[in-house]
Amino acid sequence: VIGQGVGDPTRIFGTTAGLLEEFSSERIIDMPLMEEGMTGIAIGMALNGLYPIQTHIRVDFLLLAVNQLVNMAAKYRYMYGGAFEVPMLIRAVVGRSWGQGPQHSQSLQSLFAHIPGLTVIMPSTAEDAYHSYIYAAKIFKNPVLSIEHRFLYDLQFENRQEPHRIKNPFQSRLVEKGDDVTIVATSYMVQEAQRAAAWLKENTPVTCEIIDLHCVSQVDSILLLRSLQKTGHLIVADTSWKPYGVSAEICRLVAEHSPEVLRKPVVT
Fold it and tell me: Which CATH code of 3.40.50.920, 3.40.50.720, 3.40.190.150, 3.30.70.860 fits the domain covering 173-261?
């Protein structure tokens, strides 16, 4: 595990707590301000048989490592005909907090999801993160970027016991069944969608079907279109901007594959 702050007192919102004490500074490596160099080191570790978990306190800082991530990690396997693999996990945090302005509060998932060879996931629960990270480290052989919303760190989750998802935890999942509207959500917006659905169910006859997108770079279009065939209405709830983003990609899939399923325009 390498990154800025992985061993400091706050342990990146508590997500690396206890690791330094258990594994020592030889495996939990606190890095200086060198995002591109740190990513290059992680790529070198992956190429030599190790599995690096690189952590960025903010996804904004990952922009300083774009050359290594986009031109090296994502392309290595393709440039060398599969002779090399770059299995690694990059964790990056999103979600506003006090005193954080335009350079510390962006959600850049669609930017990175646009890159072939880079798998981008956005866990919405602790269980999603756990199974996805185990899968990435033990089975998946390509670089994975996990964008974690800091609001989720303070929540408690029930264990859903979904053994079928352990085989491929990157896939989208049906969170809640409904008949009137499909809500496709990412990350923390899954929690917000569940709150909205609960309120509607209690106060109106409207029921919502909620899909947790989870992997924004590999959308499960079959699950999406099957839901829309039933509800005919679509809301996309993402943490970032609407233009050229996850919302636009969901709309593209519907427009290309089955535009007739929509009874009303999409709401994003």
Answer: 3.40.50.920
Handedness of CA 33, 140, 248, 75 (dihedral sign): positive
The yes-or-no answer to whether 2-154 and 173-261 have a common fold is yes
d(CA 230, CA 178): 9
pLDDT digits (tens, 9 = 90+) for 132-180: 999 999 999 999 999 999 899 888 887 776 666 678 899 999 999 999 9
35-67 per-residue burial string, b: 16 or more CB within 10 A, e: under 16 = beebbbbbbebbbeeeebbbbbbbbbbbbbbee
- Do residues 43 and 89 make contact, with C-beta atoms less than 8 angstroms apart? no
Task: Locate the domains of the chain by residue range.
Answer: 2-154, 173-261
Using N-to-C axis directions, what is the helix angle for 221-231 and 246-257, rounded to 10°? 70
Nearest partner of 37 among 61, 13, 15, 17, judged by Cα: 61
The overall pTM is greater than 0.90: yes
> In CATH terms, is domain 2-154 a member of 2.40.50.140?
no
